[in-house]
From TrEMBL:
One of its GO terms (biological process) is amino acid activation for nonribosomal peptide biosynthetic process. This is Putative acyl-coa synthetase family member 4. InterPro entries: AMP-dep_synth/lig_dom (IPR000873), ANL_N_sf (IPR042099), Beta-ala_Activ/Resist (IPR052091). Residues 1-206 form the AMP-dependent synthetase/ligase domain.
């Protein structure tokens, strides 16, 4: 055994992982080759010694004679201080999470880490989903020659499994990349069948890429062990593209819903630098946290952003804009800290009104996108059955009985229906963010 590491707990309960030499050494040697590490390099990565990517950084430096820069935990949790360190010590190889870069304004990245005269020649993003190419393009200054990489892995098969040099001349999502030495990748259907093309769960491992998780012994694990990554991917030829975490979907009113379609739409907007979703079972609400681009004012940007995803969100949702996003010690977005500062910004009544409008438009025959407060549901092509569906959806969303809603939908105006809904749910606010669910 080379070392023992704890998983971060970001995708489940923390557990110990015992990593043998035969599992981690190929990682170090292959990444050293891909990054072309030399004794002239200065390697840095803002993460604590309890986070497994630090092992790669340490041995990339030790096996090549390069310089290793290890920031203190206090500095490592402050991205602006890391930028100063990188500049002062002429760091050439930097590993960090996408969330780390999202805490720095894109125009500042262009002038510092990704400027024309930066010392940084390799920037490797790991630990979270890689941002799409459209976002990465906003980070790079004119004349910048830094090479960007997407490095993917799971702690249970420490440390990395794939590596992809990012081509900014393409569009869309960044592939996970080619498997690193000794690594086997399989995509399996929910039934367990291995597929050569299509969408399924990614399994990672190999003969030598075996670790002991929790209380496992070598007698407990298969000679060729593949671990369930928990990630849904699309395989096309030799390309693997991350889609979403299997546990990121949620059940809402008997149907499975995901937040990533809305996220994809928002990230295409130049107004949005980053986006993260969280579904609260207690509130039956999808919270969408965004960081706006420099110069964007929330009051001006949020109406159009909200409208752009109305048809993609099959449940009540709220978009909350932040000027900065909190990070964990591992450099990942700190969802718990984010939710603690969010309650005063919530407006559930507005979310319920949006859902009502979406359902009203869906179940009527319309020639315009706007709803006249004086219009009548039946006159616009609605029916008794569809009115019943609206009532069931709104009662489920609000967790309130709405005994008069059906009659008002069928016989009164949209304005009267909205007024009744607002009166019935007045004072409704966040109750339970449901972090464990």
């Amino acid at each position: 055994i080379a070392y023992t590491m704890w998983t971060s707990g970001s995708t489940g309960e923390p557990k110990t992982v015992q990593v043998p030499h035969c599992c981690i050494v190929p990682n170090v040697l292959h990444l050293r080759e891909i990054f072309n590490i030399t004794p002239e390099d200065v390697i840095c990565g803002p993460c604590p010694l309890t986070f497994d990517p630090i092992v790669i950084q340490i041995f990339l430096a030790l096996t090549s004679g390069a310089t290793l820069l290890l920031p203190s935990d206090v500095i490592g949790e402050t991205p602006s201080e890391i930028v100063k360190l990188v500049t002062a010590h002429k760091v050439s190889v930097l590993q960090a999470t996408p969330s780390f870069f999202f805490t720095i304004r894109a125009d500042h990245l262009k002038k510092s880490l990704l400027s024309q005269d930066t010392s940084l020649r390799i920037l490797a993003m790991r630990g979270e989903e890689c941002p799409p190419v459209s976002v990465l393009k906003r980070w790079k200054g004119n004349g910048n020659a830094t090479q960007l990489f997407n490095v993917y892995g799971i702690t249970e098969v420490s440390c990395f499994a794939t590596c992809q040099k990012i081509d900014l001349g393409t569009n869309g999502a960044v592939p996970l990349g080619n498997p690193l030495d000794g690594t086997i990748l399989e995509v399996r259907k929910d039934s367990g069948e291995v597929i050569e093309e299509g969408i399924g769960t990614l399994f990672v491992g190999g003969t030598d890429r075996r670790c002991l998780v929790g209380n496992e012994t070598w007698q407990d694990v298969d000679p060729v062990l593949l671990r369930d990554s928990g990630d849904r991917v699309k395989k096309c030829g030799n390309d693997f593209t991350f889609l979403y975490r299997n546990d990121s979907s949620f059940q809402y009113n008997g149907r499975k819903v995901r937040g990533d379609p809305a996220t994809a739409i928002l990230l295409r907007s130049p107004s949005v630098e980053t986006c993260r979703t969280h579904f609260s079972k207690g509130d039956r609400m999808l919270y969408i946290f965004i960081k706006l681009s420099p110069g964007c004012v929330a009051e001006d940007a949020l109406p159009s952003l909200t409208k752009s995803i109305e048809t993609e969100c099959l449940c009540p949702f709220e978009i909350v804009a932040f000027s900065s996003l909190p990070l964990t010690r591992h450099g990942k977005l700190d969802l718990k800290a984010l939710l603690k500062t969010t309650s005063e910004k919530m407006n559930h009544a507005a979310a319920y009104n949006r859902l009502l409008s979406t359902l009203w438009k869906k179940f009527t025959t319309r020639t315009t996108d706007s709803i006249d407060p004086q219009e009548n549901f039946l006159q616009q092509g609605g029916s008794t059955l569809r009115a019943s569906t609206i009532c069931q959806e709104m009662e489920f969303a609000t967790k309130h009985p709405l005994p008069l809603l059906a009659g008002k939908v069928l016989h009164e105006t949209f304005g009267a229906v909205t007024a009744y809904l607002n009166e019935s749910v007045e004072g409704t606010g966040p109750r339970n963010f449901g972090l464990k669910g």
